[in-house]
Amino acid sequence: MHSLKELYKVGIGPSSSHTLGPQKIAKRIRKEYPEATRFEVALHGSLALTGKGHLTDKVMRDTFAPRPCTFTFNADRLPYHPNGMIVNVYQDDKLLNSIEAYSIGGGAILFKGEFERGLKEYYPHNSMEEILTFCEHNALSLYDYVKRYEEDDIEEYLMMILETMLACVDAGLKAEGVIQGRLKMKKVANDMYHQALNIHTPMRRSRLMIASYAYAVAEENADGHRIVTAPTCGASGVVPAVLYHAYHNLHMSKQDLVEALAIGGLFGNCVKYNATISGADGGCQAEIGTACAMASAMVAWIHELNNNLIAYAAEMGLEHNFGLTCDPVGGYVQIPCIERNAYAALCAMDAGLLAGELGYLRKNKISFDQAVRVLKATGKDLNDAYKETSLGGLAKEYHVEND
């Protein structure tokens, strides 16, 4: 598996696959062709169908500026992934190159010819069963395992990721107004947080606060602000909500939360390596489902559960998101995406609790790896209308013009 640095990335919203990835593609092409005078971009598949709402054309046009860039939108998909594009690079009227590139989820990109080569492998094990067995034989915690195989500066990197997440929650809790786009969605994280402060029932207050933290990040993401892919932009509010709660309400240290990030990232990596974290490829189960699994593992670790029970919590977080569709209304990462982040954060809190209680009563019969395989199979079976195309589900039921 790849480094956690390939999973947790700082970028701008609203979409890691439709904004962050295309921006990286444009930056790379611009750097490789400094003599270019203009660009023509043909977006395909999901990039074409929801690119406008996800700001794909805007971010690429801004990246190529001041050189002009024109776009065409084609519903057919290219061979390797639903998020594909062809960029024609020109110097005046001379075509310098026609480049086929893909944004494969979580901000990761690949150009044609790179799929066989891939990224550097850091971990010798590619399944959670292999990892758990290795840890048991060597008396390692899951965090010890990450430290053994990652780069030497992984703690510093994860501390930067944590600080960025906490700052994003802070920014979202202060933000007011309306999120960009035709939906005219009012930002509610600030109001939700202050409602929570006035609630005297401890459990209700705590859960509403966690929801407000998730809303804060998801609203920041939808407005195109700075977030962390965890594992994607569209699911970026789940993990920070849990960590912000642990830091501000449970008073855990930042070093402890760095360890939680590493452990959650390990489960996210397993999904990314063995299935997909791309909504265009596997539906929202691949994004929110993975984020919920990661956050569930973190909550289990916070509850001081052992490696196997942490895996149980992650499996639970993933399993109960099977079949979740990616159907953004109007192509915006707003409905149902923002609300879904808060719901998944609360589910993660429950999964961490249940794993601790159930795990000591009976052995879980479904492994995390089995859940990942089911996610992958379910993603393949999902109709394309439910995979970030805005052709089905809520996107078909509710039209922006209704407002």
UniProtKB/TrEMBL annotation:
<comment type="pathway">
    <text>Carbohydrate biosynthesis; gluconeogenesis.</text>
</comment>
<dbReference type="GO" id="GO:0046872">
    <property type="term" value="F:metal ion binding"/>
</dbReference>
<dbReference type="InterPro" id="IPR029009">
    <property type="entry name" value="ASB_dom_sf"/>
</dbReference>
<protein>
    <recommendedName>
        <fullName>L-serine ammonia-lyase</fullName>
        <ecNumber>4.3.1.17</ecNumber>
    </recommendedName>
</protein>
<dbReference type="Pfam" id="PF03315">
    <property type="entry name" value="SDH_beta"/>
</dbReference>
<keyword id="KW-0479">Metal-binding</keyword>
<dbReference type="InterPro" id="IPR051318">
    <property type="entry name" value="Fe-S_L-Ser"/>
</dbReference>
<dbReference type="Pfam" id="PF03313">
    <property type="entry name" value="SDH_alpha"/>
</dbReference>
<dbReference type="InterPro" id="IPR005131">
    <property type="entry name" value="Ser_deHydtase_bsu"/>
</dbReference>
<dbReference type="GO" id="GO:0006094">
    <property type="term" value="P:gluconeogenesis"/>
</dbReference>
<keyword id="KW-0456">Lyase</keyword>
<dbReference type="InterPro" id="IPR005130">
    <property type="entry name" value="Ser_deHydtase-like_asu"/>
</dbReference>
<feature type="domain" description="Serine dehydratase-like alpha subunit">
    <location>
        <begin position="147"/>
        <end position="395"/>
    </location>
</feature>
<keyword id="KW-0411">Iron-sulfur</keyword>
<keyword id="KW-0312">Gluconeogenesis</keyword>
<feature type="domain" description="Serine dehydratase beta chain">
    <location>
        <begin position="3"/>
        <end position="58"/>
    </location>
</feature>
<dbReference type="GO" id="GO:0051539">
    <property type="term" value="F:4 iron, 4 sulfur cluster binding"/>
</dbReference>
<dbReference type="GO" id="GO:0003941">
    <property type="term" value="F:L-serine ammonia-lyase activity"/>
</dbReference>
<comment type="similarity">
    <text>Belongs to the iron-sulfur dependent L-serine dehydratase family.</text>
</comment>
<keyword id="KW-0408">Iron</keyword>
<keyword id="KW-0004">4Fe-4S</keyword>
